[in-house]
Design a protein that fits this description.
Order of helices and strands of chain A: HHHHHHHHH
Number of strands of chain B: 7
Largest sheet of chain A: none
Largest interface: A-B, 32 and 33 residues
Distance between the termini of chain A: 43 Å
Strand order of the largest sheet of chain B: 2-1-5-4-3-6-7
Radius of gyration of chain B: 19 Å
Low-confidence stretches of chain B: 24-31
Radius of gyration of chain A: 21 Å
Largest sheet of chain B: 7 strands, mixed
Order of helices and strands of chain B: HEEEHHEHEHEEH
Structural class of chain B: alpha/beta
Number of domains of chain A: 1
CATH topology of the largest domain in chain B: Glutaredoxin
Oligomer: heterodimer
Structural class of chain A: mainly alpha
Helix content of chain A: over 70%
Mean pLDDT of chain B: 85
Number of helices of chain B: 6
Distance between the termini of chain B: 66 Å
CATH superfamily of the largest domain in chain B: Glutaredoxin
Shape of chain A: globular
CATH architecture of the largest domain in chain B: 3-Layer(aba) Sandwich
Strand content of chain A: under 5%
Chain lengths: 180, 181
């Protein structure tokens, strides 16, 4: 927890990071609030899905948007320091949260598997239904995993920020010092 | 190095492009290619155990909805349809809601349990028929195994429109219910 607080303080002191967070939070909040109820609209996103936002999905949207905003702000700071940010977990979390509601009850998966079935007939038939059924019945768990992944990404990037910018100096052997 | 990076980016752009195209296009067109064609006759079984056929739907405008009971858009859609049950009845629309054959391959509750969970306390009006699709009906109407697909069938037995997710497309159903034929 400590690295996160230290890193967020450093990010807040940086104007670009601060503004990326200020702009990013409402933007990502709106995106998640519109996308998460898409499982109830057959994949349609917009006002039609926003209308169906439940309190549970609202909490998840706020959590995902907040974590992603903070992670992106820290990633901006790391890049500005000339280092590489940790991207795998945040990409996984963001994609999982966006794709889960779209796959569960829309025709996306049957169409995609139908196209694949041309090449691989074994996956034709009820495979799409099984996958969609699993996603639909475990949707909340999958979204919580997405929250967890984004939280891990926040922690990983916070540790990098908290450790500060540093140069990599090759370690010297003790005997090489004695020859100096 | 530059080539490898640009190739990786190209692959990512193609992957996201395909996913995006499917996402944008698929919800707009879940049709099973029976739009503006005669509704094919196929058997189904009502919750009362009576064997019926879609051929018997002629003579009334019908909202035929095939759903999987594990599907989120189906529960939300059922709530929306139940909210407009009185209006649909007054407009003379017959509502036929059938659980997909074997629930599309994933175990879900029966149609009665689904109703009790999605719309507790709701009693299906007399213009509603609930039941279970047969394999033949599944193949005729829903060969791609969409978990949520409905057909708006006119009194002559022709499919006027195919859609999904009534919670998002209720206006279209109400408009069809008000139409003259």
């Amino acid at each position: 927890m400590r690295p996160i607080i230290v890193a967020l303080r450093l990010a807040w002191d940086d104007t670009i990071c601060r503004w990326s967070a200020i702009v990013g939070l409402p933007l990502l909040g709106t995106v998640y609030a519109a996308v998460l109820p898409a499982s109830m609209t057959g994949g349609r996103i917009g006002w039609v899905s926003l209308r169906l936002l439940t309190p549970e999905l609202g909490i998840l949207a706020v959590a995902l948007a907040s974590l992603l905003t903070l992670t992106v702000a820290l990633m901006v700071l790391i890049v500005r320091q000339g280092r590489r940010a940790s991207k795998a977990a945040v990409t996984g979390g963001a994609l999982m949260a966006l794709v889960t509601p779209l796959l569960c009850c829309s025709p996306v998966l049957p169409l995609a598997l139908g196209a694949l079935a041309v090449a691989f007939p074994a996956i034709a038939g009820v495979a799409a239904g099984r996958m969609q059924g699993y996603i639909a019945t475990h949707e909340t768990s999958l979204l919580l995993v997405a929250v967890g992944l984004t939280a891990v990404a926040l922690y990983q990037n916070a540790r990098r920020v908290a450790s500060g910018p540093h140069c990599r100096i090759p370690a010297r052997r003790p005997d090489s010092q004695s020859t100096r | 190095m530059v080539n490898a990076t640009s190739c990786a980016w190209r692959r990512r752009v193609i992957c996201f492009g395909v996913l995006g195209a499917l996402t944008v296009l698929a919800p707009a067109g879940p049709a099973t290619a029976s739009d503006h064609q005669a509704a094919p006759p196929a058997p189904f079984v009502t919750v009362g155990g009576h064997r019926r056929s879609t051929a018997g739907l002629q003579g009334h405008r019908t909202f035929l909805w095939l759903l999987s009971t594990w599907c989120g858009s189906c529960a939300a859609g059922l709530k929306a349809v139940a909210e407009h049950a009185g209006q649909l009845r007054n407009d003379g629309l017959r509502v036929v809601i059938l659980r997909n054959y074997k629930d599309d391959g994933y175990p879900g509750p029966g149609i009665r349990a689904f109703f009790a969970r999605a719309v507790p306390g709701f009693r299906a009006p007399s213009n509603w028929t609930l039941g279970q699709t047969s394999k033949q009906l599944d193949q005729s109407y829903n060969p791609r195994h969409y978990p949520d697909v409905y057909f708006l069938i006119d009194s002559g037995g022709d499919v006027r429109a195919v859609g999904s997710a009534p919670a998002a497309t209720m206006g279209r159903i109400l408009h069809f219910a008000k139409s003259s034929n």
